[in-house]
Amino acid sequence: MHVSMATSAGTAGRPNEDFAGAVPGAAVLLDGAGIPGTESICSHGVAWYTHRLGGALLGRLSRGDGRDLAAILAAAIDEIAAEHRGTCDLTNPASPQATVAIVRAHRGRLDHLLLADSFLVLDRVGGGPQVVTDEREVTARRICSAPLAGVPEGTPEYDRVRASCARALRARRNQPGGYWIAKDDPHAAEEAVTGSRPLRDLDGVALLSNGASRLVSPYALTDWAGVLGLLSDGGPAEVVRRVRRAEADSPAGPAAPKPDDATVVHCTDLGGFEIGAATGPAGGC
Known about the structure:
Layout: E1 2-8, E2 18-23, E3 26-33, H1 46-61, H2 69-84, E4 97-106, E5 109-115, E6 119-124, E7 128-133, H3 136-144, H4 156-171, E8 193-198, E9 202-208, H5 224-234, H6 236-249, E10 262-268
Antiparallel strand pairs: 1-10, 2-3, 3-4, 4-5, 5-8, 6-7, 6-9, 9-10
């Protein structure tokens, strides 16, 4: 497996809260989330959480033992929660959390896991892209944001209703009927979207954080087949560059999406080096 990746912080002067990494036969992407200004809840911050959790995942994936991906994620969540449970209020809905996307080549198959709203794009041999994501957060956000309809933006009433909607969304986090994300509860891993496909059916696979996926929606500058074309021609850096250009060209206003961290991981030559294989090409993932 050959892996290339690119990442860009959404805001100058603020840490990039995405994380991407790879070991032979596997790659991970995390998109951190939290509320700025909540240092009294967790002194470490979101970037610390995504980097620690990402490192814990890579350490377990590097063992090449074929362990269930949800079990790997659960153990990693539990490990990082234990590192700061004694100093931070992990049960607070605003404490650091992250979406998780994992792919692993093992015994002739590509296994994947998704938790929350990152994107997995399978480049199928002769079949075009198949997009996998966990839509539960988007669904919960749409339901919780319904009271904002018709409320004029920029008014005190809008701010009040928006704050109420945000509280309602946080209340659905890691709850049945809501959505699931990596935070402090290892049982969230049991709710992840998982799957497996023969490696021979795939030319490659891409992982995109929510910020990178904006090229398709809401900017609608290309479709998922176009994203795969960009990755083939210019690599992950080209996708990130076009996202930044779209943000710069977007009309200003309250409804305009705020710049977000954007990260892309692109895996090709999937059968070249699998976890558990005896040999593989130098420099592969």
